[in-house]
Model the fold of this input.
Amino acid sequence: MSRTNRLKTGTWNLLLAFLLAETLAFVAGTSCVWSQEQPRQRRRGNRPAPSSEPVRSEVIQPLRKETFNDGVAGHQRTQGGNPREVNGLLVFDGSQDGYRQVDPQIVVGGGYLLHGTNDGLVIYDKTGKQVEGVNQAAFNGGIDPKLFFDPHNEVFGFDLWNPWDKEKLKPVNVSISASNDPRGVWHTYPVPAPQGVDGGAIAYSRKWIGYSFPGGPEQTFVLRMAEAKAGQPATVYHFSGNVGNPVMMQDAIDDLYFLAVTDERFIVRRITESADGTPRCEEVSSSEHGLDSIGFPPQSPQKGTEQKTASGDRNPKVIVYQNGHIWFSQAVNCEGRAAVQWIQLHPEGKIAQRGLISSPTSSYIQTTLAVNRRGDVLVGFQETSPDMFISPRLAWRLADDAPGELRPMVAIGEGRAATDGTSWGDYSGSVFDADNGLDLWTIQSTTGEDGKNDCVIARLELAQGNHPEKQKSGQ
Done:
């Protein structure tokens, strides 16, 4: 096991032990609710409110790479492939690193799929053939990759948080491509975050790149997309407190939105530009959500062992702004079992539609959501139970389906063994295809024969209307 994986696993084992200790008691009955006896101060996840103005700024000089694959010995990486059809979907393998915490992510644009994990980055074409691959050292090192493709500025972006740099600055390395070709020039901006911890998230708007993370008094920063794309020195603006999780602004909007999920409320904020050109944080809405299912999910059972696995986080990992609404999925506690909840939320705080994927026998974990320009939705997640190893799944709907309903669950693989520890994931990835705006993709984890993490990538083809149900019906 690598030093990175040992340190990361130790950190997350401590965190997950704390999460288990904080898990809310099950309330008898059919609803999925918070325990009324759980003291408010023990309810987790509420983060400090942000400042409205940046508390400081700094200029970061970029590290320039002429090509994605820099040719440095030891930086190359080969993973995945093996395209095949599974239940009417194109499926191929992503990273097969054999850790329990791979942290898999994907984005799609410029004719390519970019895949990131804790061991590095791989470019595939859309048929599942690997094009190039490098490890994290090629981008200044780090873990916990979060990826995006900005369709407005036609660039790829991702972050790597590096807690092991010699200078002890623990930089968040924000890397932006110079074009929509991920094989070409990249610029990396190492933003110091000495009090940060892993678990951050990155997103974009037409004007801004934003990053939020837990830890320290300043948990959110933004920089201008134009400076990063051009490879110029970038002014980074830091806000005190936590603005929320940043939102992928698929709509062509300058402002960058953030969402905070608390025990009782959805809080929507945005970073907008002041008259003097500096960013400003504004609250858009703070509304009581009234959700029964909002508690952090409990650990989940798996086949053939008493060892339970981590289920994910009620704080959504991928949040999207599409067609004037905020969309996300989250892992929650439903009747003492992990379930997947997905929500379409108006920025003013009203829930437009909501769905719950739950079962009296199975647990559904590690979820993310993708939505296309038409409003079609894919929810990716994993299924596990006392009779099933951790297995990749997705469910989907078309925009004109009945509100809150998903079509039947689709299996895109089957787990082959039980994991040997609690930590798992720590998340998954689901995205729209930025080239056609319609196809939806997901990457999910599954257990290999050794009980470790393998990744499976699947495409739901909607641009040509060639989805699995049409194939079955022969339409």
Remarks:
- Residues 87-121+289-475 form one domain.
- Residues 409 and 452 are 24 Å apart (CA to CA).
- Confidence is low (pLDDT under 50) at residues 1-31, 33-44.
